Amino acid sequence: MINIIGAGLAGLSAALTLAENGIKCRLISAQQSERAQSVLAEGGINAALNTMGENDTPELHFEETMKGGCYLADPNSVEALTQSAPAVVKKLAFLGVPFNRNANGSIMLRSFGGQKKKRTAFAQSSTGKMIMTALIDEVRKYEAQGLVDRFPHHTFVRIIIENGKCNGVCVRDDSDKKLYDIYGSVIMCSGGLNGFFPGTTTGTVTNSGNAASVLFAQGVKFANLEMIQYHPTTFAIPGKRCLVSEAARGEGGRLFSERGGKRCYFMEERYPELGNLMPRDVVSREMFRELQSSADTFLDMTGINAAVWRGKLSDLRSEIMHYLAIDPAKKPVPVQPAIHYFMGGIYVNERQESSIKGLYAAGECACQYHGANRLGGNSLLGAICGGITAARNVTSDNSDVTEAYNSSEPFASVPSPMFVKETGAVLTRGLGIIRNASELQKALNELNAVKCENAVELARRELAAAMLMSALERKESRGAHYREDFPETKEKYRRTTVSVYENDRVNISFEDIPERRNE
Amino acid sequence: MTITFEIQRRKSAQDRPYIQRITLETEDTTVAEALDIMNDGELADDPIQWECSCKQKKCGACAMLINGKPRLACDARLSEFPKGVVELAPLKKFPTVCDLVVDRSMMYDDLKTLGAWLEDEAVCNGTGIAYDASRCLQCGCCLEVCPNFYAGGEFFGAAALAPASRLISEADKTDGKRLQTAYNEHFYNGCGKSLSCKNICPAGIDTERLLVRSNAVAVWKREKRK
Q1: What is the pTM assigned to this prediction?
Q2: Sequence-ordered list of residues with C-beta below 8 angstroms from that of A376, at least 6 positions apart, any chain
Q3: Is A280 a catalytic residue?
Q4: Residues B139 and B70 in one domain
Q5: What is the pLDDT of residues B190-213, one digit of tens each?
Q6: Total tally of structural domains belonging to chain B
Q7: With an 8 Å Cβ cutoff, are B30 and A129 in contact?
Q8: Is A347 helix (H, G, I), strand (E, B) or coil?
Q9: Catalytic-role residue among A158, A172, A254, A280
Q10: What's the rounded Cα separation, in Å, for the pair A515 and A272?
Q11: Which chain A residues are Cβ-neighbours of B116 within 8 angstroms?
Q12: Residue B43: C-alpha distances to residues A425, B35, B46, B47 (Å)
């Protein structure tokens, strides 16, 4: 029996892989799968299917993923990711994901940032939702067979560590608040760290960051925490940022800034080859510079023709009209960058195993595949492949569930909203698109001055400190991490930033990235 | 603007419900944000329990009764209520867990009973039904207004129609028969065609279209068409 924490795309993928191999699992989640952040993914999923007559190959997908990530990802993991991508997308089609199709019936691909070939399979601009629906149905088949046992409305409390090995997980039933110790290996699929930046990201509030905080306090190693992706095109809605999919630029959308009534198509001027489709780190930085020089930034989608709106971007158009009362087919849309994805997370090897034996991680909660900057279209792919890899490597054993009578469990506490806001504001100031040592140090001092009232608040503050310290220690600029005091990329920092909490303090070190095997 | 919230609260299923009145001074925002503001402020010691995830009407978590109508809290603007009174209550067709949280597990049990999955490879017929049907949030708003749906009944409502329509549209012949039989038993036979589900769906799914297309295949045995 395997315990999967989180029922989003990575969790479903792991559960399905286990079930297809006849291995039982528990799928434990704070909410049902329909509420997972994966349903928000819009633009598509990358795979070198080569259906557009462009001679695309998995090797090119590999090269562009590595380059987009500024060579900070494990090449062997990326190799596995990009080689398996075509089969993953074909399987999704097998399960009925309604991908847009070419006239000959093959899967249509669109252009996405940082990639010179059309490589992104899509279902209009709701790809994540379409994939989730198909996988939820498929996993249901195995629920009915008793291979997948769902525990919705159960919140992660902590892992059970015995003799240095993860032997299970303690969870809280959110209905009756009772705690349960559940034995067996654990695959974390708990999503990104949006909750550390409340109200300012494109993610969901379910991704509170509490699970990651507790794991960090329990000694699990984290990696590349300074690598936070700002998506170039978002706008504010009540309580969060709303994404304008990169697909809008893939289909012809153009960014411009406006100063005194004059338009400047800054991406096209500065990057003639890829223009608006440069990797997200580059675009967000250019957007930030334009905004700093008191220009307004817009996404001009008025050149997109009616058939593309109707057949490929209809959801995006209605969403923009709903929230901004602007028809993007007729008028440019004001957009700014906002936090969208965390490349860093639980430090895992290419088997998705963490620094603690018996504990695996997949999806956005893990640091895998994306290095210093994720390419659009690689997150859905990474969640699915990470889940498959973790499920193939995890070992199953007999395990049971017992009620944990310990009502004084320290990690059963939750951080107060005030604490989350206060630490979030500090992190937002320190970990902007452009960083420097004095701002980071100031943020770290402010963070350490915030009082903690319980164990989870303390855990959260230490993980937050690890983010700032990772950014301080990486004295170079690479991908999403831009230091104005160290603008150059340095070969000696082409290493993984590793954070660990031991002896009541955070330690940061750098570890070598594995060499690519010749196969 | 000044808004008076009248919120139905309940500590647990065993406790008696009561109404809590709170007046909030705020700019125009959503009911979801207003709940957060109240919970972070005045109600910090005894926050209102409610489910929330995406805050952009794409996940269905925050479905509740707002002035008697099932809606998503993140999709209801305070400016829609000119009288300045907003009543919040949990969905009524599901058991209450506490405050505005309900137990929607019956929807998932129903889909299991229905056999809502594919046994074989999907046929890609390009009808667009799969796309429309896949947008269902499993929020439960449609069941709340359905005159034919009740908990524990054999009729599963539009929350099952959407997944069933996707699967019927994508199933091959053999598997299609299994799904069509289940559809007839748990949807067609019980649906009174009031179509109240069509106007309430927060995802804007045209349930009438799903119904017509699925009936054509499952009941009238017509070939799937574009």
Answers
A1: 0.97
A2: A43, A44, A112, A113, A114, A120, A246, A280
A3: yes
A4: no
A5: 999 999 999 999 999 999 999 999
A6: 2
A7: no
A8: strand
A9: A280
A10: 33
A11: 137, 140
A12: 22, 10, 5, 5
